[in-house]
Amino acid sequence: MKVSNLSSYIIRLYEAGRGNGRITLFLLGGPGIGKSHSVLQAAKEIAAKMKKEFVIYNDDIAPTILANPERYFVYTDFRLTECEPTDLIGIPEKITSVGATRFSPMLWARVMSKTAGILMLDELTNVPRDDVLSEAYKLTFDRSAGFVKFHDDVMIIGCGNRPEDSSIARMLPAPLVNRLLIINVDVPSVDEWKEFMDSTYGEEWDRRTYFFLKRFETDGYLYMPPKSTEVLEAYPTPRSWTSTARLLYKGFDDLDTLIGLVGSEVGYKLHAFLSINVSLETILDKPQMYTEYPLDTKYMIISMLVTHVTKHIKDAEAMDKVLRLFNVIATDTRELALLLIRSIETKWRPEFIRQILAKYPQYNAILEDIIKKKNLL
Questions:
Q1: C-alpha–C-alpha distance, residues 51 and 74, integer Å
Q2: 309 and 174 both lie in a single domain
Q3: In which domain, by residue range, is 271 found?
């Protein structure tokens, strides 16, 4: 399943489970591709649909939730690799009056027994301790922590890595697998990652990151997990590229920061790409110069042109220069011309296409076909 479809799928599954029993969803996929974020977004949307206040669980707010549990939709996130068994089932407590011991439930379990919500069990396949894993299985089997049953409107979602994603990933027992709905989550494409960045951060990320990833898309720089499970160097994933684009937006374009985010192999190439020095104003005045530049520089020119179009879309004189340059780009490399169109902010894209076709109607057939296929409008 595409990660871009995951949130809507979780919402549908949650709504389908009301009154019919809830199956536990298990998401399999590489690290940093957006599984956890998709679950969190789905939880927020479900809360809004149920007209409940969305909260991320912590012990400090638990008493407030328990005072009025119908008001809240609670998202509880467990990193199972950081857990002890007692974190899941509670703490043994002696009852002297009857000469026996019981498990006193943890506060989070009491909250999840009273409210609607999502219980997220992350890194399920990477848990090294059998005792923790055994208790996590019981959560999914019994929908309870110890003897505390979860609310009927609590959905349990597990996340984990496949063996090809992590050498410490464990196989799951067959009886457990038989009780799960297992969804394999694909690594997003570069364009899907860009759509996520646009919808989540708006203008507050550096789009040069996207053009670098498009330039080297066939090299797979968006997702390059390490072969070893124990490393001391960063590596590229959609998550680390999100951090990179956000920090570049804030001016952190030095080599050390880039290597610290995506590792040395990709970090050096990204730094070289960002260091390309070209004058967009000069090229707008002499658009034919564009054809003389190497491919890396052409990508940088397009990235600069996207920002320029956004700022000057209503300036007829400025846009006349842009359109003449677009004609040169389209003649030189059609794919880069289409990349330029696709990268224009959604609200300005129809106007940009209208202006292109008004000046160069010969592109109508080509653009009409491509626009329909790629849903550019």
A1: 13
A2: no
A3: 190-374
pTM of this structure: 0.80
User: How many residues in the chain?
Assistant: 377
Give the integer Cα–Cα distance in Å for 135 and 152: 20
Q: Give the pLDDT confidence score for residue 109 in this predicted structure.
A: 87
Predicted pLDDT at 292: 94
Residues 118 and 195 in one domain: no
**CATH number of the domain within which 31 lies:** 3.40.50.300
What is the token pair recorded at 35?
């599984």
Helix (H, G, I), strand (E, B) or coil at 364: helix
- pLDDT tens digits along 28-41: 888 889 999 999 99
The two tokens of residue 116 are: 């609607």
**Per-residue pLDDT reduced to its tens digit, 153-172:** 999 998 888 776 665 666 77
Domain count, the chain: 2
Q: Are residues 165 and 228 in the same domain?
A: no
Q: Are 186 and 150 in contact (CB under 8 A)?
A: no
Both tokens assigned to 227: 């072969």
| Beta bridge mates, 56 | 75
- Which residues contact residue 228 at a Cβ distance below 8 angstroms, ignoring those fewer than 6 apart? 167
Q: Is the separation of the CB atoms in 23 and 181 below 8 Å?
A: yes
